[in-house]
Amino acid sequence: MVIILQNNASEKQIEDIKSHLVDYGFQIHESRGVQKTILGAIGVQPDFDIRKIRILDGVADVYRITVPYKLASRDFKNDNTVIKINDVEIGGNKIILMAGPCSIESESQIFKLAEIVAKTGTKILRGGAFKPRTSPYSFQGLGEDGLKLMRAAADEYNLIVITEVMQINQIDVIEKYTDIFQIGARNMQNFGLLKELGATHKPVMLKRGLSATIEETLMSAEYILSSGNPNVMLCERGIRTFETYTRNTFDVSAIPVVHKKSHLPIVADPSHATGYRDQVPPIARAAVAAGADGLIIEIHDNPEKALSDGPQALLPQTYINLVDELKAIAKIVNREIG
Ligand code: PEP
Ligand code: MN
Question: Which among 38, 20, 249 has a CA at the least distance from the CA of 29?
Fold first, then answer.
């Protein structure tokens, strides 16, 4: 931790700050310039609240030079985490595609879409059975009946299943049908849920919160990792900004930042990031170019009638064409679409 003192900090204030640092157990390195005095505090633990120093008289600013997450950091584990599910590896050289409807709506819908997903070589079928809708009056999902339909469709076409878990009491039932748990943006900081998922044995895809920083997202991953589950992937799904022409703002820079700071794979969700069908392919292409380890994309065969997120769902043919484009881009960045 680096503490920059105010130019006019008195000797008494400096001594007082130093004695606080000693009380907190830090070693001190002092650097006195003509105008500025800077203190370096050594031995800061990840959970130390630096505001305790920022509020002291004579302090101008405080910076943490270590990160607050441990298990999620590249320093802790240098090799990329590769999550294996059947014959699929997420976090390896292949960019793994996940596609399907926002919500599972009926047997014919999920079977039709699973067939398209499989036809494109996509390995993972997405679909929500418990939906986190902004309005309690909107379609809330088919629950366990939906999970049964998706599992049957996935088994028919040899696909892996990813679906969202919204609350702790859904974990057991969802675990029976899914291969990957999805934590939605609205639950990124539901720490009780994160801890419970840390105690399960299935991989977890953690979506970035609506207004969460990358560091906060990694701290949430830390909850799952520290509870015993090493198979965590992150998902950039756009963050809330002042822009209104898109549903969210896709933070493409989160992809290289996560790769630098963490060993965990990162998946991009251009559907929720943009909210509009015409914006999904360009952002999907950008995500592959930026190094995403996977993509999760909403598709629907009749988006006008979709029970949720129709405007952002790609028509099957658009998805089929997009997969071909993604293959070409992947090649340029020395990767493959898996
Ligand atoms: C979803 O993937 O269906 C979803 C609700 O996404 P998010 O949590 O990113 O809004
Ligand atoms: Mn959706």
Answer: 38
